[in-house]
Amino acid sequence: MGSVRAKAAAGATAVVALALIAAGTAVLLVLSSKLQNQAGLQAEIAAREVAAQIATGTPYAELDLPDGEDHPVVVAGEDGRVLAVGEDVRAVDGKPVGGAKRGAKGAGQGAPGDDEDDDRSGLEPGEVDDDAVHRDGTADVDGKVADYRFAVVEAKDTRGGTATVRAGAALAPEQEAVGSVRTAMLIGLPLLCVVVAGVTWLVTRRALRPVEGIRGEMAAITASTDLSRRVPVPSSQDEVGRLARTTNETLAALESSVERQRRFVADASHELRSPIASLRTQLEVGVAHPELLDVPGAVEDTVRLQRLAADLLLLARLDAGERPADARVDLAAMVREESSQRVADRIPAHVGELAGAEVTGSRGQLARVLGNLLDNAQRHAVGSVRVAVVREGEWVVLRVEDDGPGVPEDERERIFERFVRLDDARARDDGGAGLGLAIARDVAVRHGGSLGVRTGSVFELRLPVAG
Question: 0.70 exceeded by the pTM?
Answer without folding.
Answer: no
